[in-house]
Write a structure and sequence with these properties.
single chain, about 300 residues, mainly alpha, MetI-like fold, 12 helices
């Protein structure tokens, strides 16, 4: 009985120690991230944009779709903070509501691309054989197309719209994510902790979800943040070309596209949505760079300062 009690106490102590180590590592990651001033500013700006998108009806001063030709192409004023566009719509309100569409499209495309690439890369790298061969040949075909051209092709087939835009951009992200995950899984599946799990009879699903996935989560977080920024830019570009969100949807890229003919008369109609895209993408890049440094185990072990 005493030996069993001792073994049980030892197991409990090891579990507590492992939990404490995880907490310390998470605290260290947050501390590294917080020491990067650019990342903190970027995170604050992104959080502000998310809050604006959530509370758009409260923040907006006018309806984003109401038209008034009597007040078209006005400069910023106390009544219209960002001026009006060619149809007399309030630009500030459209930028506020545009945050909903632009952030949703960017986050949705990045998330779908990451999940699809994770599943494809995980199964391909873990099982190998014909599954790996077929998957990699499909990915090679997709990677042979330029990303923007592939997105234009998909949207042209499916038709313009927010959902189709997310599908088109996410397909372009799936291939590089799958190759990234596959390479990580190939380097991990022969490690001792994976071989030990196999030796005790752990199933494939358990090995992939409990042993492999936690070791590539930080990689997915970093690339997910960066892909978020790329997806937002791609969505704005396709909407600018008329292949994304359609009028009167207040999406930032579509606003720039519809107002480009009036740059001389009312540059504010394109300036402010352009600035919203610029600062949002910049903040995501700041966050992505900081996460890469904070989650990089080599930097943790070397004790190098954060950039």
């Amino acid at each position: 009985m005493s030996e069993q009690a001792t073994a049980q106490n030892t197991k409990v102590s090891e579990t507590t120690l492992a939990r404490d180590i995880r907490v310390i590592r998470r605290f260290d990651t947050v501390k590294r991230f917080a020491t990067n001033k650019f990342a903190v500013v970027g995170f604050a700006f992104l959080a502000l944009m998310v809050l604006i998108a959530i509370f758009a009806p409260v923040v907006a001063t006018h309806s984003p779709t109401d038209q008034s030709l009597l007040t078209r192409l006005q400069e910023p004023s106390s009544d219209h903070w960002f001026g009006t566009d060619q149809l007399g719509r309030d630009v500030f309100s459209r930028v506020v509501y545009g945050a909903r569409y632009s952030l949703f499209i960017g986050a949705g495309a990045a998330l779908v691309g990451l999940v699809a690439g994770l599943i494809l890369g995980m199964t391909s790298g873990f099982f190998g054989g014909w599954i790996d061969m077929v998957s990699m040949r499909i990915i090679d075909i997709l990677l042979s197309f330029p990303g923007v051209l592939l997105a234009i092709l998909i949207v042209s087939v499916l038709g313009p719209g927010v959902v189709n835009l997310i599908i088109a951009i996410s397909i372009g992200f799936t291939s590089p994510v799958a190759r990234l995950v596959r390479s990580a899984v190939l380097s991990l599946k022969n490690q001792d902790f994976v071989l030990a799990a196999i030796s005790i009879g752990a199933g494939n699903t358990r090995i992939m979800t409990r042993h492999l996935l936690p070791n590539i989560t930080s990689l997915l977080i970093i690339y997910g943040t960066l892909y978020f920024a790329v997806a937002l830019l791609a969505a704005a570009g396709l909407s600018f070309l008329g292949l994304g969100a359609q009028s009167p949807t207040p999406e930032w890229g579509a606003m720039i596209g519809s107002g480009r003919e009036y740059l001389r008369d009312a540059s504010n109609a394109t300036l402010f949505p352009g600035l919203a895209i610029f600062f949002t993408v910049l903040s995501l890049n700041f966050i992505g760079d900081a996460l890469r440094d904070a989650l990089d185990p080599r930097m943790k072990s070397s004790g190098q300062p954060m950039r």
